[in-house]
Amino acid sequence: MEESIEIARQIMMGLLEKMEMNAELRGSLMGRDIYLEVKGDQQGILIGRYGRTLDSLQFIINRMVNKRLKEPVKVILDVNDYRKNREENLKKMAIRSGEKAKLRGFSLTIGPFNAYDRRIIHLTLKEDPLLRTESLGEGEMKRVKIIPSKKEGARV
Prior knowledge:
GMP Synthetase, Chain A, domain 3, elongated, 6 strands, 2 domains, alpha+beta, 3-stranded mixed beta sheet, Ribosomal Protein S8, Chain: A, domain 1, 5 helices
């Protein structure tokens, strides 16, 4: 697995050099996934609007790394803890929105979100037996509908 981390690091360093970016790069294992953390000053260029550039870079890195390996791995790319902070914010927003839906007694739609962000929202609210969620829309960016369970006498 160390070989996989090193391959991922080399590929990412090559991309950073081609982009003429000075950054520190660390690679580690998170479960069975390879986690690449980029630390640098020009984070906006790597993250892009709503993290779309970061998602694209992660996709490219995954393709390039898996082309060189015998067994497929998932590479997670993060820049200055953007994904970690985004995940925390999404969880908090999901919980607030779920509470609002339960309090009001009717569905609430939030978003649009990419697949990674929607998954975080769905998993966060999955633990609440009084709520269920579903994705709405077409394409990559979809909305999330938060639906409170029906209680006797309550309108949904």
